[in-house]
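If your schedule permits, I should be very grateful for your opinion on a structural question. Thank you for your consideration; the sequence and its tokens are set out here:

===
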Amino acid sequence: MVRVGIVGIGFMGMIHYLAYQKTRGAKVAAIATRDRKRLAGDWRGIQGNFGPPGTLMDLGPIGLYERWQDLLADPKIDLVDICLPPALHEKVAVAALAAGKHVLCEKPIALTMAEGKKMAQAAKRAGKQLLVGHVLPFFPEYAYARQLIAGGKYGRLLGGHFKRIVSDPLWLKDFYDPKAVGGPVIDLHIHDAHFIRLICGMPKAVYSTGRTRGEVVEFVNTQFLFDDRDLIVTATSGVIQQQGRGFTHALEIYLEKATLLYDFAVLGGVPTASMPLTLLTPDGKAVQPKLPEVDAFAAELTEAARAVHSGRASEVLSGELALDALTLSHRETESVLKQRLVKI
């Protein structure tokens, strides 16, 4: 059993805590937060753009720490799960690895490439795993897409379009601060950048257009360019000002002999699948595959526990893949600002 210490109890810290209750091979042994109310189990002030609202929690016998440094010193902890703002990822991850702990860091791996590389180097020095919580591949629709592409039944991948749009997250005061959270490209679009890298390999260049807010890109359209000129991949992501659509993510994936469609949104607070996952087959049919009922975060954390317990790195949660996703996000921002194609 992998014993986990969660550092940071905000929205994602809460989501991870709840998911560990459904996770095979791992359990929460401690949490660390400076917020004394949350340390006492009063999580009612926590909110996000999906999932349940915060409530009163019975934290039971787990270790409770105000200082994350004290959690790192706890000999019972095997894996430190970092759910702090991105600006703090490097500092805590490097310290945790030096303390002999494995690390699962919520995405993005860091705000800058230099910070992310320091984390990877610290993991190598310590001989511990650095895992990054890119959860998108564990959602049933995206997991199905990966399996369909890898299986080759409908031929090779010819491209796709990915969409990820949210209303303005007004509860996140530092969302548009490039030195705190990083803005919509680094915090939001990086999900699709990671998935595109996972299924397509690393692009050779990007061409992005977009709208900025302050120092960050608020809304972006990107074309990813590959050595394979037949591979046509685009993505749209960012923030809109209408609060009626809290969240949406969608995909279209084009194979030689089939197309996969999916579009999900939270409209007026109601989860709505305007296009359930649908496979367009060569014989003209539109088939809706039966998907397993999976908690994506529990599946992600189960994979992290497997990697730590077995000593075998995770293909999906690797720090190297997370660094590639961060690279793509920065190059897209550069392309918007310079109004030209940018090589990777």
Summary: The mean pLDDT is 96. The longest strand covers residues 157-167.
